[in-house]
Amino acid sequence: MLKTQSYEVATNITYEYIYVKASGSGDDDDNNARPTLLFLHGFPSSFHCWRHQIEHFSQQGYGCLAPNMMGYGKTYSPLNTDEYRSKSMVEHLVALLNHLHLGKVFVIGHDWGTRPGSRFVLYHPQQTLGLVLISVGYTPPGIIDLDQALESSKQAFGYETLGYWKFFISDDCATIIENNLESFLDLAFTSDPVQWKTDFAPIGKAREWLTNGRRTARASYMTEDDYKIFRQYIAEGMQPKLNWYKAAIANVDGDDEMNVDPTIKRPVLFIGGRKDYVSLISAYSGQKQYIADVETIELETSHWVMEESPEEVNRAIDEWLKRIV
């Protein structure tokens, strides 16, 4: 079990994190030291979702830093939606890197972690060596119009891939999830990925599933201990976690990103799951126009790529890293 630590990245704002130092590094200037990988999790997760990657890459000599993002664990979890600005989160991460005397890092994000991950590279390219996006590809700065996005996805794919956002931004969602934790975990980590297409993504379906307390078989790649950990994080309170969605719909990043160059000037690896019916790989085909050096790898997984096929993910990242370092 890796030791968790905490650091105050700004006044009254503390981040909880796991850190394994790169081997062979007496200090950050050691040229023989392998770089550090900064892992950013998504929803409804925690730094626990990177357990397979931290074990693998720390054994390879890489440094591994995995914070609990805002809203999770002992990390700052405000109820004010306006505080969930990507630029603020990036500055929190920079403060954490500086505290640990880390220079350039590889940023690896999954799900919502891809947003601060990509913004980190936009705002601080000099502190990054490359970016790995898992499940969710690069979305350039711009205003989010949810209704338009829902209509577009229905026309393109036959259903609203982000229809569940309507539920997640509703005022009663947090309470409904907290009161139906087992039902929520079943759907989030279902053994049948198609259920995301039928019972999760379309408008009204996630609410219907939970309020009826429906159950289904959970994925085999999660142990009972893993489920207990996920359950504990959710039971600690859902609203701060759901604020990521509310902040996005409120376009809290609008002013910060108005004049940001959307071009990513670092190598990017995008790993998607062919059985992910929310974050469809084809939905991110346009990211190539913003990234000169991007490689896409498709795996036979659902949304939880790095948990479902950790060896394939580790191997893909490993080979990509070696080409860059």
TrEMBL record:
Protein name: AB hydrolase-1 domain-containing protein
Keyword Cytoplasm listed: no
Molecular functions per Gene Ontology: epoxide hydrolase activity
Keywords linked to the UniProt accession: Hydrolase
Source species: Didymodactylos carnosus
InterPro entries for this protein: AB_hydrolase_1, AB_hydrolase_fold, Epox_hydrolase-like
Annotated Gene3D superfamilies: alpha/beta hydrolase
Keyword Hydrolase: yes
Domain AB hydrolase-1 span(s) in chain numbering: 35-309
Pfam family, one: Abhydrolase_1
Family: Belongs to the AB hydrolase superfamily. Epoxide hydrolase family.
